Amino acid sequence: MSLDTAEKQELIENHQIHPTDTGSAEVQVAMLSKRISKLSDHLQRNIHDFASRQGLLKMIGKRKRLLSYIKDNNVQKYQDLLKKIGIRG
After folding, report:
1. What is the pLDDT of residues 4-13, one digit of tens each?
2. Which domains does the chain have, with CATH numbers?
């Protein structure tokens, strides 16, 4: 459930901090959130795909660690990011 180039570019443009930013924590969280939603849809249709379920859990853990890092550094940026992406904190 990877993202195609157009989707990645759109996410980067919407969440980047400066014009050349492609790997900040905010961009990574946005990409992970998109991949998580795609994979969740896949797993609802394919219940017995346990390998993908394990990958989903790893992605959720990584997103959680990145969100924790953002929250530790700047709470306002964390809250804005949660609203922008549409996930619970």
Report:
1. 999 999 999 9
2. 5-16+23-85 (1.10.287.10)
